[in-house]
Amino acid sequence: MRPSEEPSKIDLAVVVVTWNNADVIADALRSLLHDLETSGLRYEVWLSDSASDDHTVDLVRREFARVNLLENSSNIGFGPANNRALRQLGFSNGARREKPRAVYLLNPDTITHSGATKQLFAALLSQSDIGVVGARLSFADGSFQHSAFQFPGLRQIWAELFPTPGRLIEGGFNGRYSRSLYAGQEPFEVDFPLGATMMLKREAIEESGLFDEDFFIYCEEVDWAWRIRKRGWRILCVPRAHVTHLGGQSTTQVRPSSLIHLWKSRLLLYEKHCPRWKIRLARMLIILGMRRELRQLEAADVEIQAACRTIIEMAQA
After folding, report:
1. pLDDT digit string (tens) for 275-295?
2. In this structure, is the dihedral angle defined by the CA atoms of residues 270, 274, 276 and 277, taken in order, positive or negative?
3. How far apart are CA 200 and CA 43, in angstroms?
4. What's this model's pTM, rounded to 2 decimal places?
5. CA distances, 87 to each of 13, 34, 78, 204 (Å)
């Protein structure tokens, strides 16, 4: 059994990382703050901005005085931007600040539905061995969105890069959980939640450390959940906590570079958590898959072609 949580003046600290999100951040913060105000929780909200060149920072400073704003001098990456806020919250060596009981990492392209935050917090604190929880997500039109996944392996690489029947893509072969679990009312155990909503218990953070800053973007939440699971914590998806996730608001701005960052991060993830034989097979599948992609691209897709070649070189290194 885990030790019981020590008293804290703050129940929950919410951290939002932005990069050129002026078109969505106002709705995200309004819905979040409204939900927090009615939750009965003692809370703080922190926004760590990665040098946005739109008016994200001005908007937040002007309209959301309750939000603690951290301005980074460059686009330092998702993990480092979160870590800066986490250190401000006391999760660093020698920190004197009293830590919150839980930290909630929330994407800027989200809409929080009534009661979602309290449901997540209650599920997280319901048992001593629960370290992380995530919400049930839907797209902007209300349609279903996978909210949690199994840790990635060779089957997921195959499903993404090679022809695969739809029933396998939507099932356990591709690391998905049954839709019937999301339709239920009870939390269910998962490997990791999508990083759009990830609430962590204070003790789980203290045991596992912060984000690995070798991940610039993508897979950093998978790595963190993997490290937390290895320390014996349970991770849940909470269907009663509903959050709309618009998806891809920042990463789609630079698609070729995003593709490179994605596979660079996946290779790093396999290196950290998989045995050598699986790493070798993963690299082989990535090389074959990217070569297949190159054959199918149009001649005009010069930037994507270059990205695929870069990914092949990374997998061969």
Report:
1. 999 999 999 999 999 999 999
2. negative
3. 14
4. 0.92
5. 12, 26, 14, 15
